C-alpha cells in the first residue's frame, strides 16, 4: 500500500513538473512573439513620429524598445526572421541616436530663447531615452542661468539702489534671502516634474547643480557685505583690542550692533534654506529606497549640505561674529558699570538693568542665528561676564555699602545693596532664554540639545551664585543695620518685671509696658527699608529680622524670672508680637517662634507636674522643640516652682 502511494505521488509530481515546464515554454513563446511585434511596432512608429516631429511619441517608442528583454531579441535574431529583426534593430538604433541629437538641440534652442514651456517639454523626453543625468544637467544649467541673472540684478540694486532707512542696515541679508527663496521656489515648483518623469531619487542631482550656482551667488553677496560693512576690518580692531593690555585703536560697540544683527540674520536664512533642501531630498529618496540605501543617501545629502560653499562661508562669518559679539557685550557691560546711577525712588541702579539687558540681547541675537555652536559660545561668554566681571562689581559694592553701623549710614547701605538684590530677581531673564531654547531644540539633534542644556545649566548655576550673593548682602544688612537696633529693644524686656501680682498684671493690661513700643519701633525701622526695596527682597529681609527677634527673645527670656501671672503676661506679649509680624511678611513665622511659644506654655502652668499632661505620649499633635533639659531650665524661671519638684520630673 505504501509503495503504491509513493509511486502514485511520484507520477503526479512528474506530470505537474512537465505541465509547469510546458507553461513556462509557452509563456516564453508568447513573450517572444509580443517582443517581435513590439519591435516591429516601435520600428514603424518611431519613423512616423520623427517625420511628424512628434518627439514625445518617438521617445516613447524608443523607450519601449530599450525596455525589451535583450535575451529574447538575441533569440529572435537566431530564428527564421533574423534578417527582419536585424533591420528593425538597426533602424531603431539609428532613430535613437538621431532623436538624442534632435532633443538636445531643441532643448538648447529653448534655453537660448528662454522659453520655459519648450525647455520643460524636451526636459521630460530625456529620461525616455535613458539620459537622466544629461537631462538634469541641462535643465539645471538653464535654471542656474535664470537664478544668476536675478541674483546679479538684486545685488546691483542692493549696492547702488536707493533703499529706505529701515531696511538699509539689512540689505545684504535681504539680498541673500531673495537668492535662497528663489532657489527654494524653483525646487518646490519643479520637484513634481522631476519625480513624475525621472522617478524618485533624482531630485538630489538637480539640487546639486542648483547648489553650485547658489554657492557662487551667495559668495558674491557675502564678499560685498564684507567689503561695504568693513567686516574684516572691524574684526581685526576687536581682536587687537581684546588681546592688547595697552589701549590702541578701539571701536564703539554701537558701530558693531547693526553688523552683528545682519550676520545672524544671514546665517538664520541660510540654515532655514539648508533645512528645506534636506527635507526635500530625504523625502524624495525615501519613496524608492530600501533601508540600507537610505543610509547611504542620507550621508550624501549631509555631505552636500555641510561641505557646500554656502555652509562654509556662513561658518566663517559666524567665526568672526562670536568674538565681535563678545567684545560688544563686555564693552557695553563695562560702560553700563561706569555710567551707573541710582535715582531716588527707583528700586535698582541703572547698572543692573542695563547689564542684564545687554547680556540678554547678545544671547537672543546669537539664538536668532539658528547656529547651535554660536548660541553655546555666546551663552558661555555671557556666563563668564556675569560670573566674573559683573558679580565682582556687585561684590565690591556690597563690601563698600555696609561698613556703617549708625542710622545715618543705613540708607547708604540700602542704596548700595539695591543693585545686588535686584540682580537676583533678574534670574527671570535667564530663564526666558531657557524657554527660547525649547523652540530652538525642536530642530536640533540630541547632541546639539545636550550642548545647549549644558550651557544653560552653567548659566543657571551662575544665577544661583547671584542668589547666594543676595543672601549674603541681606544677611550683612540684617547684621549691621537691623540687629544693633533690635537687640536693645529686646533687651529692654529685662527692665520690665514679670514677677508680678494681680494688681500689676491689671496695670500692665491697661498700660502695656513693653510689646506695643517694640512693635512701633519695628514698624518705623522697616518702613525705611520697605520704600527702598522690592517686595520680594523686603519680605526676605523681614524674614531674617523675625529670626533675629526670636533668637534674641529666647536669650532674654532665659535671664528673667516669672510668677504665674508674669508667665500669662509673657504669653500675651508673645501673641501680640507674633500677630504683628505675621501681617508684615508673607513667610510663615510661627515655626520660628515655636520654641518661644512652648516656653510661654511652660511659664503658664499652674504646677510643675502639669507639664506631663503635654509631654511624651500626652503631647498629641504637638512636636516639642525644647529638650528635657531646656524644659527644666524654663520651669526654673518660675519663682513659685520648687527645684526639687522640677528635678523629680521624668521627662
Can you describe what's shown?
It is a single chain. The protein has 651 residues and is mainly α. The protein folds into four domains: 22-112; 132-324; 349-480; 496-648, Methane Monooxygenase Hydroxylase, Chain G, domain 1, CATH 1.20.58. The protein is 79% helix and 0% strand. It has helices spanning 2-51, 55-67, 70-77, 82-112, 116-123, 132-160, 171-198, 203-229, 231-243, 253-288, 291-307, 309-338, 350-368, 372-401, 407-425, 427-441, 446-491, 502-510, 515-532, 535-557, 564-584, 594-603, 628-635, 643-648. The longest helix has 50 residues, at 2-51. It is elongated and about 145 Å long. Mean pLDDT is 82; it is low at 402-442.
Helices and strands in order:
Layout: H1 2-51, H2 55-67, H3 70-77, H4 82-112, H5 116-123, H6 132-160, H7 171-198, H8 203-229, H9 231-243, H10 253-288, H11 291-307, H12 309-338, H13 350-368, H14 372-401, H15 407-425, H16 427-441, H17 446-491, H18 502-510, H19 515-532, H20 535-557, H21 564-584, H22 594-603, H23 628-635, H24 643-648
Helix pairs in contact: 1-2, 1-3, 1-4, 2-4, 4-5, 6-7, 6-8, 7-8, 7-10, 8-10, 9-12, 10-11, 10-12, 12-13, 12-14, 13-14, 13-15, 13-16, 14-15, 14-17, 15-17, 16-17, 17-19, 17-20, 19-21, 21-22
Features:
mainly alpha; 24 helices; 651 residues; elongated
Biggest pleated-sheet summary? none
Radius of gyration: 45 Å
Distance between the termini: 104 Å
Helical content band:
over 70%
Which ranges are low-confidence, i.e. pLDDT below 50, for 5 or more consecutive residues? Answer: 402-442
Tell me the number of structural domains: 4
Counted by DSSP, the helix tally is 24
Record field, number of beta strands: 0
Write down the overall geometry: elongated
Question: β content, as a range?
Answer: under 5%
Structural class: mainly alpha
State the order of secondary-structure elements, H for helix, E for strand: HHHHHHHHHHHHHHHHHHHHHHHH
Amino acid at each position: 500500500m505504501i509503495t503504491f502511494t509513493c509511486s502514485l505521488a511520484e507520477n503526479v509530481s512528474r506530470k505537474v513538473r512537465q505541465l509547469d515546464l510546458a507553461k513556462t515554454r509557452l509563456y516564453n513563446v508568447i513573450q517572444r512573439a509580443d517582443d517581435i511585434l513590439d519591435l516591429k511596432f516601435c520600428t514603424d512608429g518611431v519613423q512616423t513620429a520623427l517625420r511628424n516631429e512628434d518627439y514625445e511619441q518617438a521617445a516613447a517608442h524608443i523607450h519601449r524598445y530599450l525596455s525589451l528583454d535583450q535575451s529574447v531579441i538575441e533569440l529572435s535574431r537566431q530564428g527564421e526572421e533574423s534578417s527582419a529583426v536585424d533591420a528593425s534593430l538597426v533602424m531603431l538604433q539609428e532613430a535613437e541616436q538621431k532623436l538624442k541629437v534632435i532633443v538636445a538641440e531643441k532643448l538648447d534652442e529653448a534655453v537660448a530663447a528662454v522659453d520655459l514651456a519648450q525647455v520643460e517639454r524636451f526636459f521630460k523626453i530625456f529620461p525616455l531615452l535613458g539620459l537622466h543625468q544629461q537631462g538634469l544637467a541641462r535643465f539645471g544649467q538653464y535654471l542656474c542661468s535664470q537664478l544668476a541673472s536675478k541674483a546679479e540684478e538684486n545685488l546691483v540694486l542692493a549696492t547702488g539702489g536707493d533703499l529706505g532707512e529701515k531696511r538699509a542696515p539689512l540689505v545684504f541679508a535681504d539680498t541673500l534671502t531673495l537668492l535662497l527663496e528663489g532657489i527654494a521656489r524653483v525646487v518646490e515648483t519643479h520637484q513634481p516634474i522631476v519625480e513624475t518623469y525621472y522617478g524618485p531619487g533624482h531630485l538630489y542631482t538637480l539640487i546639486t547643480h542648483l547648489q553650485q550656482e547658489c554657492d557662487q551667488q551667495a559668495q558674491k553677496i557675502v564678499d560685498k557685505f564684507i567689503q561695504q560693512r568693513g567686516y574684516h576690518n572691524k574684526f581685526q580692531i576687536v581682536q587687537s583690542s581684546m588681546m592688547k593690555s595697552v589701549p590702541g585703536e578701539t571701536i564703539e560697540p554701537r558701530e558693531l550692533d547693526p553688523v552683528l544683527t545682519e550676520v545672524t540674520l544671514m546665517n538664520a536664512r541660510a540654515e532655514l534654506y539648508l533645512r528645506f533642501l534636506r527635507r526635500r531630498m530625504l523625502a524624495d529618496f525615501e519613496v524608492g529606497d530600501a533601508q540600507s540605501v537610505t543610509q547611504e543617501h542620507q550621508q550624501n545629502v549631509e555631505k552636500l549640505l555641510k561641505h557646500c560653499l554656502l555652509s562654509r562661508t556662513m561658518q566663517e562669518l559666524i567665526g568672526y561674529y562670536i568674538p565681535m559679539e563678545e567684545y560688544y557685550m563686555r564693552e557695553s557691560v563695562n560702560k553700563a558699570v561706569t555710567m551707573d546711577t541710582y535715582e531716588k525712588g527707583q528700586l535698582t541702579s541703572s547698572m543692573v538693568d542695563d547689564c542684564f539687558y545687554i547680556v540678554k540681547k547678545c544671547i537672543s541675537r546669537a539664538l536668532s542665528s539658528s547656529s547651535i555652536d554660536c548660541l553655546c559660545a555666546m551663552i558661555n561668554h555671557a556666563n563668564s561676564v556675569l560670573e566674573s566681571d559683573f558679580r565682582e562689581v556687585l561684590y565690591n559694592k556690597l563690601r563698600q555699602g555696609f561698613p556703617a553701623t549708625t542710622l545715618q549710614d543705613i540708607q547708604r547701605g540700602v542704596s548700595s545693596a539695591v543693585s545686588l538684590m535686584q540682580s537676583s530677581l533678574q534670574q527671570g531673564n535667564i530663564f526666558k532664554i531657557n524657554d527660547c531654547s525649547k523652540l530652538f531644540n525642536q530642530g536640533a539633534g540630541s547632541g546639539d540639545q545636550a550642548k545647549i542644556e549644558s550651557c544653560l545649566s552653567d548659566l543657571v548655576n551662575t544665577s544661583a551664585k547671584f542668589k547666594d550673593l543676595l543672601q549674603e548682602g541681606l544677611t550683612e544688612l540684617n547684621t549691621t543695620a537691623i540687629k544693633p537696633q533690635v537687640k536693645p529693644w529686646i533687651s529692654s524686656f529685662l527692665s520690665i518685671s514679670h514677677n508680678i501680682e494681680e494688681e500689676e498684671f491689671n496695670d500692665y493690661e491697661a498700660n502695656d509696658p513693653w510689646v506695643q513700643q517694640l512693635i512701633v519701633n519695628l514698624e518705623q525701622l522697616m518702613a525705611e527699608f520697605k520704600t527702598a526695596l522690592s517686595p520680594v527682597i523686603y519680605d526676605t529681609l523681614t524674614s531674617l529680622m523675625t529670626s533675629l527677634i526670636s533668637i534674641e527673645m529666647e536669650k532674654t527670656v532665659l535671664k528673667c524670672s516669672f510668677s504665674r501671672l508674669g508667665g500669662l503676661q509673657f504669653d500675651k506679649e508673645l501673641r501680640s508680637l507674633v500677630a504683628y509680624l505675621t501681617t508684615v511678611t508673607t513667610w510663615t513665622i510661627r515655626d520660628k517662634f515655636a520654641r518661644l511659644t512652648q516656653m510661654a506654655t511652660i511659664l503658664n502652668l499652674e504646677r510643675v507636674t502639669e507639664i506631663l499632661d503635654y509631654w511624651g505620649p500626652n503631647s498629641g499633635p504637638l512636636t516639642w522643640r525644647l529638650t528635657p533639659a531646656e524644659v527644666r531650665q524654663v520651669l526654673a524661671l518660675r519663682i513659685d516652682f520648687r527645684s526639687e519638684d522640677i528635678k523629680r520630673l521624668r521627662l
